[in-house]
Design brief:
Helix content is 34%, strand content 22%. The chain is of the alpha/beta class. The chain has helices at 16-28, 51-56, 68-71, 125-128, 135-154, 158-164, 174-190, 219-231, 326-345, 384-397, 401-416, 432-438, 440-447, 452-458; strands at residues 8-12, 35-40, 44-46, 65-67, 76-86, 91-96, 102-105, 108-111, 115-117, 129-130, 166-170, 203-207, 234-237, 242-244, 249-252, 257-259, 262-265, 269-271, 288-289, 302-304, 309-310, 358-362, 368-374, 377-382. It is built from 14 helices and 24 strands. It has 3 domains: 8-117 and 270-345, 3-Layer(bba) Sandwich (FAD/NAD(P)-binding domain); 119-267, 3-Layer(bba) Sandwich (FAD/NAD(P)-binding domain); 357-417, no CATH class. Helix 5 packs antiparallel against helix 6.
Amino acid sequence: MSTTERPRILVVGGGYVGLYAARRILKKMRYGEATVTVVDPRSYMTYQPFLPEAAAGSISPRHVVVPLRRVLPKAEVLTGRVSTIDQDRKVAVIQPLVGETYELPFDYLVVALGAVSRTFPIPGLAENGIGMKGIEEAIGLRNHVLEQLDKADSTTDEEIRRKALTFVFVGGGFAGAETIGEIEDMARDAAKYYPNVKREDMRFVLVDAADKILPEVGPKLGQWGLEHLQKRGVEVYLKTSMDSCIDGHVVLKNGLEVDSNTIVWTAGVKPNPALARFGLPLGPRGHVDTAPTLQVQGTDYIWAAGDNAQVPDLAGGEGAWCPPNAQHALRQAKVLGDNVISGMRGFPQGQYKHANKGAVAGLGLHKGVAMIVFGKMKIKLKGRLAWYMHRGYHGMAMPTFNRKIRVIADWTLGMFLKREVVSLGAIENPREEFYEAASPVSAAAAVKPSAPAEKAKAS
């Protein structure tokens, strides 16, 4: 018996898998066959491979996100969180942005919470670190870096300048290498407009615990990427990690100590910890344990895919698991959507199988690495051609025709117009100036100046 007038398919998460699975279900579903409900704390999906370019100003931040309500007009989109799942009653507890929690019954469940930044209990990291998992962080990083150039240009204090112009990135995978490549590019361009700041004054540091960077593209291309960044003046320290960064004082395990206002953390991801409250079978690293059909082990009405799922890699052989990347997430979502429809209609489930097609990475304008797989043949590219492959692949993978055109328009304009180097740091506290103007204290101070004793007390 259905828990609602018609079956409800509850999609927890509006990222890659949540968005694409919901679209697939709505496309395959007959009119009125079921209600599709998507729950996510944000009302938009973020295309994460474009975050480094958004941080560097090559793509407008609005064009990197896809509004869920616009793309899923036939779905019910709830802005909030699923705090717990009661599998016996088939009920989810929803925590909306405002107001009291409430229960939402469902018949079929899709778990697509994705991943969060994998962090460690490093002193000072929570207070000083900057992540790169969301568009908000990309915008914040861009404004922060340009603000550091403003600070360095306006002061004669060498200690302040040195700390402002030192940028530390922890993590040498796709996110870390692409972000430091894009940010270094942006800072190099921006320095042309600062009379007291040169590229030689800046210090870029990349740290990784592994013995190589960009492992996704193979050892040779990874080595080329490493040497390329070093030629651009980036200091790369491998086989080491960060011990602490209290008050911006970075201490590495290899003994290096630097002071920096900018500490970017891109050292991997982990499944969303909220999964622990759903009562689902989890793998050793916290992923939802699924069958090749993407059904959660031991259930016939719950599916999971993407970064929060442990999906067997049938193309990789026995014991292999699909890596947490966009290539797999987008394809898993389609199989998952088809299987939800099949499960609802009582048909057999299809298995997910996808052979790796390669990997692409951009390291700034006209710079990149790419490994393209055709059957048993691997084509390795580097430099400008790889950068074209990077943009071409992700341009096609970007959801919706609307966003594809907007991203391509940004790239096209970037060929003819100079990069914007304006810091909008005040956007993080947009009401501060108005509050100061409207504050009774400010008004009183404008009418009656403070006495010398009051000034001393206030300072």
